Amino acid sequence: FKMNSNLLKQAKKNKAQSNMNIHFGSIATDQHFPFDHHNDALLEKNHILAVDMEDNGVAQACWLYHTPLIIIRAISDNVANKIPYTQRNAKLAARNAANLTILTIKALSK
């Protein structure tokens, strides 16, 4: 599913105006747990930043109802485990995702 270009542009603008560690890229999603570790090379080859199950339903609903879509995720570790999961990383990732979401919504409501 493609993200809405206006929402994406606004999120990137908000990121540029902040000191948050934010990455933009593709998320692999499915209705079932999509991958196990033997697919890590495929994910890296396709520049997939995250794997999830939750966003698939949201993306499908937005597509069906012609609703603009952007997915903002808190990612506390990466696909290749180059950044290990820690509580500190999880809290920081969640804070950054929440802040970017709030900034983007506020900018769109002006």
Describe the structure.
With 110 residues, this protein is mainly α. Helix content is 46%, strand content 8%. The chain is built from 4 helices and 2 strands, in the order αβαβαα. It has helices at residues 5-16, 40-45, 54-64, 87-108; strands at residues 26-29, 48-52. It has a two-stranded parallel ribbon. α1 packs across α4. The relative contact order is 0.20. The model has no long low-confidence stretch (mean pLDDT 81).
Question: What does the secondary structure layout of this molecule look like, with pairings?
Answer:
Blueprint: H1 5-16, E1 26-29, H2 40-45, E2 48-52, H3 54-64, H4 87-108
Parallel strand pairs: 1-2
Using brief descriptors, characterize the structure shown.
110 residues, mainly alpha, two-stranded parallel ribbon, 46% helix, globular
Averaged pLDDT:
81
Helix-strand topology string: HEHEHH
| Helix/strand structural class | mainly alpha
Low-confidence spans: pLDDT under 50, at least 5 residues?
none
> Helicity, in percent?
40-55%
- Quick one: biggest sheet? 2 strands, parallel
* N-C termini distance: 27 Å
- Seen as an oligomer or otherwise, the chain set is single chain
Shape: globular
Report Rg.
Answer: 15 Å
Q: Strand order within the widest sheet? A: 1-2
Q: Beta-strand level of the residues, as a percent range?
A: 5-15%
- How many helices? The count is 4
Number of strands: 2
